Amino acid sequence: MAVSIVKNSVYNTANEDTSMGKIKDEPGPKTAFNKTILNVGEETCALYAFKETPSRLFLFWFLTIVTVGFYRLFAYWMKSLEIAIRFEETGHEDADYVMVHDNHGIKTIKKVTNKESVKGFIRPTRSGAPEKIHSMRFFTYRKIKYIWYDKEQAWINAAELDSTAPFIIFKNDVDDRKGLTEEEVLSKREIYNRNSLIIKLTPLIVILFKEVLGPFYLFQVFSVTLWFIDQYAYYASVIVLITVLSAGLAVWEMRKQEKRIREMVGESPKVTLIRNGNDIEVDATEIVPGDIISLPAHSFVLPCDCLLMNGTVIVNEAMLTGESVPVTKASLKEADDCGYELRLSPERHNRHTLFSGTTILQTRNYRGQPVLARVLRTGFSTLKGQLVRSILYPKPPDPQQVMDVYNFIVVLASIALCGFGYTIAMMVYREESAKHIVVRSLDIITIVVPPALPAAMAVGTINANMRLKEKKIFCISPSTINTCGLINVACFDKTGTLTEDGLDFNCLKAIKKNEEGKPMFTKEFEDLDPEKLDEESADLNIVIAAASCHSLTRIDGILHGDPLEMILVEKSKWTLEEPVNSDEETMDFDNVQPTVLRPPPEQARFHPEDHEYSVIKQHPFNSALQRMSVIVSTPSEHSAHKMIVFTKGSPEMVASLCVPESIPKDYSDVVDMYAQRGFRLIAVAAKSVHMNFAKALKAPRDTMESDLEFLGLIVMENRLKDVTLETINKLSVANIRCVMVTGDNLLTAMSVARECGIIRPTKKAYLITHSKEEKDSLGRTKLFIKESVSSSENEIDTNSEVREFDQKTDVLKSRYQFAVAGPTYAVIAHEYPELMDRLSAVCDVYARMAPDQKAQMICALQSIGAKVSMCGDGANDCAALKTANAGISLSQAEASIAAPFTSNIADIRCVVEVILEGRCAVVTSYAVSKYMAAYSLNEFLSVMLLYWEGTNISDGQFLYIDFVLITIVALTLGNTAAAKNLRKIPPPPRLATLGFYFSVFGQLAINIVTQVAGFLLTRAQQWYIPNPEELDNHQTMIGTAVFFTSCCMYLGYAFVYSKGHPFRRPVYTNWLMCITIFIIFLVNLFFIFTNVPFFVDLMEFVHIPKLWFCFVLFAIGMVGVFISLLYEHYFVDKIVNVAFESYLRHRRIRKDDPTLPAYERMLASIGSSPSWFEKELAMAKLTDRRDTMESSF
User: Fold this and answer.
1) Residues 6+ apart with CB under 8 A from 612
2) Closest CA to 664 of 511, 525, 546
3) Per its UniProt record, what NCBIfam families does this chain match (predicted)?
4) Could you count the other beta carbons within 10 Å of the beta carbon of residue 567?
5) What is the Cα–Cα distance from 942 to 505, expressed in whole angstroms?
């Protein structure tokens, strides 16, 4: 997390803008000497340095006092206002304050603290050597401390320097038993802070103030104040009550979130440390980096990240990977020798690193010595600390959607200004008092801009979250639900997500020698029986490899580990023993006690002497290396130094490590044959070595895993889950592209993709591969494209709807699909970056992908405008789950913290449910927005008409409209459940669409006609009693008539904007809303057709003497409702939203409009044929040929 100052002799802002991406509204003048880059986790932020001067500070407080705090309030909302007045730009070496500007547009000002100490502070450096300083400048951002380093001219997180220090420093200190001195501990604590993830509970008053200082809460304060001045006390009191309850609920939710995080962090345990050569027991919060911690034997949750110094530790890393599979960690002593240039890295040295939050299941001692680990990272710099910070600082809502709401409010405010001017003109004409003119004109603004709009828009999201909980899908970031409604690419892990968790043993293909002495495959064996293998003259070492090459371990007498390895050991019928500690049993070993393996008695004749094997060293599986290995000893008096190295892994990787003479001729054909049928293949190899135990333990991994003899293939079967094909078909028919991203073999991935419908039967499939040996004229690795087999229409097209989808062509629908493996993807990313965007638009199968590549692939999709979901079981998927717009974890482990959604039902049905609820929440928020806008404009129009007559709506009528007709109905409006099935057309991607404005202003026009008709008809009657022109007279006949007409329209809007199809269920299924509307409708009829004195006085009605005219007013209102329904459901929905928007969209596609998402423009351009890729390859070949011809002359 180091940051470097951007400095040039001439400050080039263009270059700096490029480095920052799309960060706008940068403070200060064009020069950028005060700007640098700050990497906060996976996010890149801009960092600006400022200095506070007395004159500027005086001006800041002067403006605050003169404007009665309004300047301070606006500066709180817009940090640029505070920066412009309070600070001046300066270099980072002199900064008093820094401003962090993240890539979501959020600005945070942080004070730089200066600290001095006579004893000094010990901080790390890039070289790895500690440095003692006596003064320190730092600031804290998102729980991480950044310290100023003068030499590097950079703000650096000290923990990051420790995490990337030269590895040899840690390896050379493995025998340290002295630990830190008390002076060093105190000094380091100033650099790193306490080792604690405990979140201090924010005082309730602070939470409340932050909540109510938002623009909408303050607008509500303004509105309520005005209403009390206007003696509109009833509704003002109700709004105050609702606002207090709403703010209280928000405060309660925030406090509950803080408490939930505290519970997740847990209590701080007691630990044993070695300091000054002595063992001391302290609270875990006292730990500092560099401490040596003595690990308990079992059942201990690690409070920090540390490096294992000796022994072996078995941990449960479910918190990180989502899989409750024990992982064996090896000590630094077993690390390969390295030079000073090799630095500590999480990928390379993961097997030596113990992570905070993981649980120690068992430690294994050497000769009774304690198992020790050196503390690497503490507090929020640990891996668990990063997870906690991701909860504390989640991604903000989509800024485009927030801007749409603000833009819409600006439009309403513009209408309010027109009413503001109209009101002033009318009041001045009537010669009313200045106070009355001000109150009435400002009241117009509170009517047109509904202060409850944001709260009403959240109703759909709240209800969607509740329904998801009922379906066992839990969300820790409700703001993500709306984003799910816009998902157009759904990514899936394969194993455990699309397919079943467990694997079944299918067969074994061993190796034997033919008549010429060359290797060949045997027939298929259905079990690991050495007798049957011996009959075929097969190499029996493959059985030993299957029984020994694994990471299984016994914990409390029960075998734990990878299910695949459990199956192989069970098939072999071997037993695994881990002896208790004793000096006698470990005298010959420089490491921990070996695991002893014994074959069953009936297989004794196939094994030497005492029939036992000892695993003396294990190289755990590494996803980057795609293999694991063990060193097995056959202890006996005659062969003390005879050992065998067994390696298993992916067929490609193991083949590359084998002696070519040991590989059968048809190796690739056999591998491809099984892979194309969807089987998972494990290649096994071995070699014999003669060395003593000490040399074997210290031998580098690369040396031991080279020049191997190939032993054969183990074929495992991985079946699809029952719901996978059905779910993929549902998503595909809804025009949601499905993508597989897996760490498995490319051909196996293709087979599963065909079986589950990701590869469609009507599309051609192509494999993109590369050759390391061949280069083009530019020195780039050559790429190749090869057609593959598509899926079977009979198996995939399960019904007529799916069949129709597959047969239909569309300009935005690719007619082919690419598949690529991780190594090829890396080649394209580094050597052919110009192809990445187009590849992302058409590639649907990604195989052999490392965890970071999965995240990179999702970023590539997002960069071309796609909204991406990722569904995985947690193993190696955490980075991808966090990167996606909507990550859905199928793991119930703590790793699910990385994903906004967690499903307790471990299959991909949850993806459909989340998208359905997301679409429902999105259209509900749009509908509530339109409903609130229509109500505001309806009320605005009523007030405008009554101002013409010098009157207004009475308090009782206002209260009934605002609270009963609007607030209660709006709350039930969002209660309509999501549709049962996904539809082909997605919801609009934003609020401010053409259809939205056609709807709002079209309804306004219908409303004008309806209310004006009732207004004019009432005034035209002979019995009409005009307003007596008394100031604030609200009890008028024209006011009563307008109220009767408008009440029908208010209630009608609930039905107008409650349309179910295609994203919600029919309105009648929302029984709560229907009952509410029915009751309110009866109340409306009661008001219109009765004349009960109590209600007449309460509502300030004037009795209309003719009953037939009441029917006329009711009929006008109902006709207006009917026209509104027709206009909304036919003109807006069918003509504007479907026909016209479709016409505009296709027109924009034809014109390659840059405002379209990049992926749509790409599909329109390259979706018909992969010829664009072939042309790229042909051009490379042509360039190569030209160069050859030129060189020959």
Assistant:
1) 596, 597, 598, 635
2) 511
3) ATPase_P-type, P-ATPase-V
4) 17
5) 76
Query: What's the sign of the alpha-carbon dihedral 902, 906, 909, 911?
Result: positive
| Amino acid residing at 267 | E
Closest CA to 923 of 997, 976, 984, 981: 976
Q: Which two tokens stand for residue 1013?
A: 């008709």
The Cα angle at residue 940 between residues 935 and 946, in degrees rounded to 5: 130
The active-site residue out of 102, 493, 844, 877 is 493
DSSP assignment, residue 1146? H
| Alpha helices, H only, 311-458 | 318-321, 383-392, 399-429, 434-448, 453-457
pLDDT in tens, 998-1013: 998 999 999 999 999 9
Give the span between the Cα atoms of 379 and 162, in whole angstroms: 14
C-alpha distances (whole Å) from 910 to each of 111, 305, 872 are 45, 34, 11
pLDDT number for residue 551: 81
Identify the DSSP state of 765.
E
Residue 519 host element (H or E): strand 519-525
Known catalytic membership, residue 666: no
Question: What would the pLDDT profile of 1036-1049 be if each residue is shown by its tens digit?
Answer: 899 999 999 999 99
577 has a pLDDT exceeding 80: no
For residues 847, 852, 853 and 858, what is the CA-based torsion angle, rounded to 10 degrees? Answer: 110
SS3 label, residue 355: coil
Distance (Å, whole) CA 387 – CA 265: 10
Cα–Cα distance measured from residue 805 to residue 797, given in angstroms and rounded to the nearest whole number? 9
Helix (H, G, I), strand (E, B) or coil at 1099: helix
Return the higher-pLDDT residue of 513 and 1: 513
**Per-residue confidence (pLDDT) for residue 738, from 0 to 100:** 94
Work out the percent of the chain whose per-residue pLDDT is above 90: 18
Question: What gap in Å lies between CA 962 and CA 939, rounded to an integer?
Answer: 9
* Burial class of residue 277 (count of CB atoms within 10 Å of its CB; 0-12, 13-18, 19+): exposed
Encoded amino acid at 649, one letter: G
Residue-wise pLDDT tens digits, 76-130: 888 888 888 999 988 888 889 999 988 777 888 999 999 888 888 888 888 878 8
Distance, C-alpha 1161 to centroid of its chain: 26
What per-residue string of b and e applies to 409-444 under the rule 16 or more CB within 10 Å gives b?
A: bebbeebbeebbeebeebbeeeeeeeeebebbbbbb
* Greatest pairwise CA separation for the chain in angstroms: 125
Q: How many CA atoms lie within 13 A of 293 on its CB side?
A: 32
Pairing of strands 627-633, 371-377: unpaired
